[in-house]
Write a structure and sequence with these properties.
63% of the residues lie in helices and 4% in strands. The protein contains five helices and two strands. Helix 1 crosses helix 2 (47-65) and helix 3 (86-119) runs parallel beside helix 5 (137-146). The radius of gyration is 21 Å and the shape is elongated.
Length: 147
């Protein structure tokens, strides 16, 4: 007797794998577990935003290009068979990492631009500049502001 998996269970597993990928990205970067906050008009998303972006990225990828693309959730008659392979979960994990990494890169880009804007108003020596540019984008902005 063959049993089929509910598409919502598959979607949940894919979403959880993506959220785990987002968490791994947050922990591997210099951010760690931080809460969302705004600095100089720039939203710093934090750990839970990485979870959310990872989960949404993985679900979207699976629903658009994976085995979830063939599921008609509005169909009331018998649905097509759906499968969930470990490769789909691994792919969801990697998409979760990549999706949250994209978010982190966009935030870093805005922080670096703001750092350059602030640094342009300062008269810094080359030694000060060498010290300032070491660390994360948020640390660089904080050092430039305090210089």
């Amino acid at each position: 007797m063959e049993s089929s998996m509910n598409p919502w269970t598959c979607a949940l597993l894919i979403t959880v794998a993506g959220a785990i990928g987002g968490a791994v990205n947050a922990l591997l970067t210099d951010r760690g577990i931080v809460t969302p906050h705004i600095k100089r008009g720039i939203l710093y998303p934090g750990f839970f935003s990485n979870l959310l972006i990872g989960a949404l990225s993985a679900f979207s990828s699976w629903a658009l290009y994976g085995s979830g693309a063939g599921v008609d959730i509005a169909q009331t008659a018998e649905r097509a068979q759906i499968s969930l392979h470990f490769s789909a979960l691994a792919g969801a994990f990697l998409v979760g990492v990549a999706g949250s990494k994209w978010l982190a890169s966009e935030v870093d880009k805005r922080l670096f631009k703001e750092s350059v804007k602030v640094a342009g108003t300062k008269n810094l020596t080359s030694e000060e500049c060498d010290k300032i540019v070491q660390g994360s984008a948020m640390e660089i902005l904080e050092r430039v502001e305090s210089a």
